[in-house]
Design brief:
With 504 residues, the chain is mainly alpha-helical. Helices cover 66% and strands 0% of the residues. It comes from Photobacterium lipolyticum.
Length: 504
Amino acid sequence: MSSEERSYQEQHRPASDFSSRSDYLDNELKIMKPRRFGLNLPGRDFRFEWEDLVPALAGTIGIIAMYSAVMMSWAEGLTQAWPHITLGKEFAIEVSRVEMLIPAFLFCILASGFINPRANLAGNHGPMIPLIGTIALAGAHPLALALLLGVFGLLLSYFKGGSKLVNLTGEGVAGGLLVFLGFTGAMSQIGQIQTWATGLETAEIAKGSLGYIGLVVLAVNIVLYAFLARINKRWLAIPACAVTGLLVALAFGAGFDLTFETEMGLPNLNPVYWWGSTEEGWMLGLPNLQHFIASLPFAILAVAMWSPDFLGHRIFQELNYPKGTDKVLMDVDDTMTMCSIRQMVGTAVGGGNITSSWGTYMIPAAIAKRPIPGGAIILGSLVMLIAILGFPMDVAVWPPVMRIALLVGVFLPLLEAGMQMVKDTKDSQSAGICIFASAVANPVLAWALTMLLDNNGLIGDKERAKKLSFMDRIVIPASVLIICLMAMLAVGMLEGKYGIPALL
C-alpha cells in the first residue's frame, strides 16, 4: 500500500525514530491528510505537540492587543460621530471579551481545529484599524459593515477569487509587499515603545527621565531574537521576547504603569443587549439602509485587502514547510469562507472586529513547522480562558509586552520572508516598484498596480508574462486595481497624503 493510500495514523512514527526534532516535525507535515469540511480527530488525523503552544500563545497575545485596539477605535469614533453616544474603555473591554468567547469557540476550536484544518483562523484585519474612526464618522454601522463584508467575502471565495489572485501575484511583487509591510510595521512598533517609555517621565513616582527603558527593552530583545535565530528556535520569539520585555520593564522601574482593572466574569452574551436599542450596548440600534450605503465602500476595501494578507501568510508556510506538504498548506478560499462567516456571526452576537487571516498565529506556526489544528484548539481555549479571567488582558496590552510581541512575531518575520523571496534581478525590480508604490500610496493599491505591471512583463519576469492568458494579464489585474482605487477614493484614504476628499 502506497503512502497516499495509508492514513495519517498508520504512517505516524514516534519522535524517537528520528535523528532530530525537526525531522520528526517535517514527517508529521508530510503524512497529514486533513479532511476538508469533515471531522478531524486528535490521534487519528493530527497530534498535539508542545510546539503548538508557541503559535497559540503568540496568537493569544496578538489578538488581545488587536481586539482592544479595534474596540477602542470604534468607541472613540462613534462617540465623536453620534451626539447621543458615549462609549469608553469599559465598553471596549466588554465587547473584546464577547469577541474572544463565542468566535473563539466556533471558529478556532470547531472550524479550524476539527472541521477544516486547512482554513487558517479568522483573526483581525490590522490594516483596517486606522480607518475605523473614518468609518464611524462616515455614518457606517458595525453590523451593516459586517454583513456586507461577509457577503462579499463569500462571493469571492465561492468563485475561487482569493486563490486566483494569490497565483497571479509574482514572487517579486509578493516579496516587495512583505518587505514594505515588515519594515513599516517594525518602525511603527519601535516608535510606539519609545513613545511609551518617554511618557513615563510624567509619572509622579518617577525620578527623572525613564525614556531609556524603551531602548533597554529593545536592545535586550534584539540580542534574544538573534540568539533564537542562531539556534533555529525563532518560533519561540513571541512568548520568549514578550516575557523578556515584561521582566526588563519591571526590573527598570516601569511597573507603576501596569494597572489591573479588568475583573473576572462573563460579558453580556445577549445580542439584543448590544443591538436592540439606542440606550444600551452599542447604542446604535439595528442598521437601516443609510447605514448600509455608508458601509459599502469600506466593506469592498476590506475584502480587496484580504488577498495580499492571505498571500503573506501562505508564503510563510511555503518558506518553512518541507516539500511534499501541499495538503497542509492553508487554503486561501476556505480561509476566506471562514473569515466571511466569522465576520457576520461575531458581529451579530455583539462584537465589532473586522476580521482577516490570523497572522500572529500563522506566522509563528509556520516557523515552528506546525499545521493549523492543534494550535488552533489550544489558542481558542486560551482566548476563552483569558476572556473569563479578565486581568491577563491588562498585561497583554501593556506596551513592552504587546509591541515586542508584534515586532518579533509579525513584522520582523514579514521583512525576512520578503527578502528571501527576492532571488534575482527580475524579482528585485518588481519588489522595488512595489515598495516605492506602497510608500507613494498604500500597500493594497501598490499590490494591485505592480501585479498589473508584472503580469504584462512591463516589470519583472517577461517570460512569465508570455505564459499568462489575456484574462490573467489584463482583465483580472486591471479590475482589481480599479476596484481598489475607487473604494479608496470613495472613503477618502488618499485625503491625508494628497488632499483628495472622499467621494462619499
